[in-house]
């Protein structure tokens, strides 16, 4: 049997599945993975985002704080609305990347926006510090804590991708689909890492072997034994996924499973791979 749906009665405000699938997401984002209401489980986020805090200051919720003219202009132009979306895109991309066995699409636009927002938030903190008012101390602590949370998510996302690239460098470089999923920096890193691997293999053992035994399966070629020695991601590994929209009956091998919105399944990654690419499910 390829798939098993998690029984609803086992899920609660602090779901066992949510804790196991994202062990440090709660600590990083200060949120409860699930909230029960109207018979459904919906994801809730209680994190204080940079934009929310900045917007509150600029709109006069704290009359003793005044942002720079540039900062006020950004907030007035609806910057905080875009920020909320960018953070959630990064957050979901982080969880999907950590739980997927293969390299996923790089979220370049959202990361660039997040970096701009980090710079903006740091400017806000600097302005509060320069004011010298002790009443701002607690607000600075809150903003700094939020800043470090987002930096943690961003660093973890990038390191997770680099770890996957290191594990299957040759395979990703030989596959155009995966090459297109990398950023330019990641592609350069993969090429340099692959060059170091080739040099190491040649110096450590391959140079001492007969020429017809030196192949390790580069560029899709096979070894004399008829197999490739290039490691690949295991697409049959088990994953937890949550359905984001009503899908209905879905074919899982020989079984027909009904996938309703917000239901949670454990299955082989290869089965729900294209659903993840289409954004119809998310990994947890």
From TrEMBL:
- The name of this protein is GINS complex subunit
Species for this entry:
Spiromyces aspiralis
What is the phylogenetic placement of the source species in the record?
Eukaryota, Fungi, Fungi incertae sedis, Zoopagomycota, Kickxellomycotina
């Amino acid at each position: 049997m390829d798939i098993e749906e998690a029984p609803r009665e086992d899920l609660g405000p602090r779901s066992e599945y949510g804790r196991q699938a994202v062990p440090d997401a709660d600590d990083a984002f200060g949120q409860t993975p699930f909230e029960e209401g109207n018979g459904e489980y919906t994801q809730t986020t209680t994190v204080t985002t940079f934009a929310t805090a900045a917007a509150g200051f600029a709109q006069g919720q704290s009359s003793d704080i005044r942002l720079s003219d540039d900062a006020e202009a950004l907030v007035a132009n609806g910057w905080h609305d875009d920020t909320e979306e960018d953070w959630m895109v990064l957050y979901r991309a982080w969880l999907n990347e950590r739980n997927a066995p293969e390299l996923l699409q790089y979220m370049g636009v959202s990361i660039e926006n997040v970096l701009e927002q980090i710079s903006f938030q740091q400017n806000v903190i600097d302005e509060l510090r320069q004011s010298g008012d002790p009443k701002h101390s607690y607000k600075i602590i809150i903003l700094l804590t939020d800043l470090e949370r987002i930096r943690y998510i961003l660093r973890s996302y990038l390191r997770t991708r680099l770890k996957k690239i290191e594990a299957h460098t040759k395979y990703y470089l030989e596959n155009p689909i995966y090459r297109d999923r990398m950023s330019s920096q990641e592609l350069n890193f993969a090429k340099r890492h692959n060059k170091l691997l080739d040099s190491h293999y040649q110096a450590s053992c391959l140079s001492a072997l007969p020429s017809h035994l030196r192949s390790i399966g580069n560029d899709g070629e096979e070894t004399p034994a008829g197999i490739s020695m290039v490691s690949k991601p295991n697409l049959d590994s088990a994953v937890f996924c949550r359905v984001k929209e009503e899908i209905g009956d879905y074919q899982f091998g020989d079984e027909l499973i009904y996938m309703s919105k917000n239901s949670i399944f454990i299955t082989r990654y290869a089965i729900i791979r294209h659903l993840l690419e289409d954004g119809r499910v998310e990994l947890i």
